[in-house]
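Work Package 3 (structural annotation) set out to generate three-dimensional models for the target panel prioritized at the project kickoff. During this period the team completed the workflow that converts sequence records into discrete structure tokens, so that structures can be stored uniformly alongside our sequence database. As a representative example, we reproduce one entry of 203 residues exactly as it appears in the project archive.
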Amino acid sequence: MRKRQLEIILSQIPPHPKPRLSLEQYTTPPHLAARLLWIAAYTYGDIVDQEVVDLGAGTGRLGLGAALLGSSYVVLVDVDVNALKVSLEQAERLGLRAWVDAVCSDVRMFHASRRVDCIVQNPPFGVHRRGADVEFLESAIRLANVIYSIHKAETLDYLQRRVRRAGKNVRLLFEDVVRLPPTMPHHYKREHAIRVGVVRISN
């Protein structure tokens, strides 16, 4: 599969059916998800034949993308059961259901029986609930050996310092601009551009 093919498939996974402002439920743009997953899979070898957890999975673009690239097992974790229903429908449609499970849970309460190979996540930016981005990072560090995480660019320096204080290595992989459609009641522009950065965290 080529990266462009992956992006096209991910674009066909629906956005959140009923996005909630309090959870900052913005669907990961397909080009961003594909780029992150491609680097994780083919630059670092963190996807193929690895167990992957997608924290705050929503409708599953990151997690299902990992399954498409050869993850041995994917767990989609989200507090929104409606979004998870969509993700499992999409797993079925894509022929991935045998490798994908879903857990309805707050990420702070989610536990695994052993450390996970890799976590992919597009956490809340912490705009509407301060510290939500940090909570996701702390949960991911508790659960996994390697983490790929998307964050608002202006918070990257602060978040990277926190990760290093936790004794982990962190590397900024790339920055990008995501253009979000008006999915929330307070959105009055045709699109809202946000600069983000993708980091890789490891032991």
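The CA atoms of residues 59 and 83 lie 5 Å apart.
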